[in-house]
């Protein structure tokens, strides 16, 4: 073993450069705090990556110890890689990787051409000015025919849009969805939902 090539994140050399890089990203507004849904394990007292959790019949558990994992929003540092989507996609051709791996990277980068429309919602029980549902479409001509909007289960306005007669059904549905891992949601091609 050639120990001269060892790299340890606790070395001064490593973490000083890591901090310097982060500081530069922060100065350019490419690193910022955001409320992000995470996999949180209370028993382990930490956030877990998607590959550290397992879907069981009882719900999501940690890979270490099979402890219950819940989805919850927490402040996390986020990097704005979308600013470099075009460059990242362009440089994939230079990588000596299998095509299916490159496809996974393309999906992760997630660049799409299209338009964003904002639907402003007036709510009696939520007096905030930012009651907005943002919609992305590749075909703006279809926006005039919109008669319904589909929201993700984690959308902040869900609680305010559900009618009294549908609240119990919606809560049951949301509980079922929250027990699924992101991977499980992506695998299932059948779209599900519930009327609010």
Automatic annotation (TrEMBL):
Name a biological process GO annotation: leucyl-tRNA aminoacylation
Keywords attached to this Swiss-Prot or TrEMBL record, sorted alphabetically, are: Aminoacyl-tRNA synthetase, ATP-binding, Ligase, Nucleotide-binding, Protein biosynthesis
Every Aminoacyl-tRNA synthetase class Ia domain range: 1-104
As recorded in UniProt, coiled-coil segments are none
Q: Could you name the Gene Ontology cellular component terms for this entry?
A: cytosol
Domain annotation Leucyl-tRNA synthetase editing: ranges: 106-196
Enzyme class of the recorded protein, top EC level? ligase
Q: Does this UniProt record's set of keywords contain Ligase?
A: yes
EC number, as in UniProt: 6.1.1.4
| Chain ranges passing through the membrane | none
For this chain, one GO molecular function annotation is:
aminoacyl-tRNA deacylase activity
One Pfam family, please name it.
Answer: tRNA-synt_1_2
Q: Which family does it belong to?
A: Belongs to the class-I aminoacyl-tRNA synthetase family.
Q: What is this protein called?
A: leucine--tRNA ligase
Q: Which organism is it from?
A: Candidatus Phytoplasma cynodontis
Supply the source organism's classification.
Answer: Bacteria, Bacillati, Mycoplasmatota, Mollicutes, Acholeplasmatales
């Amino acid at each position: 073993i050639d120990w001269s090539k060892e790299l340890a994140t606790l070395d001064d050399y490593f973490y000083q450069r890591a901090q310097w890089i982060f500081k530069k990203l922060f100065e350019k507004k490419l690193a910022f705090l955001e409320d992000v849904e995470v996999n949180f394990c209370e028993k382990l007292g930490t956030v877990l990556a998607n590959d550290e959790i397992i879907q069981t019949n009882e719900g999501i558990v940690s890979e270490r110890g099979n402890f219950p994992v819940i989805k919850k929003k927490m402040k996390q540092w986020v990097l704005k890689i979308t600013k470099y989507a075009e460059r990242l996609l362009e440089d994939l051709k230079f990588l000596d990787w299998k095509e299916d791996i490159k496809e996974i990277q393309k999906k992760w980068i997630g660049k799409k051409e299209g338009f964003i429309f904002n639907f402003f919602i007036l709510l009696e029980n939520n007096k905030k000015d930012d009651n907005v549902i943002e919609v992305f479409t590749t075909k703006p001509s279809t926006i005039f025919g919109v008669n319904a909007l589909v929201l993700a289960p984690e959308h902040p306005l869900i609680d305010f849009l559900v009618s009294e007669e549908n609240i119990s059904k919606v809560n049951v549905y949301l509980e079922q969805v929250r027990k699924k891992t992101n991977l499980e949601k992506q695998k299932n091609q059948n779209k599900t939902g519930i009327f609010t």
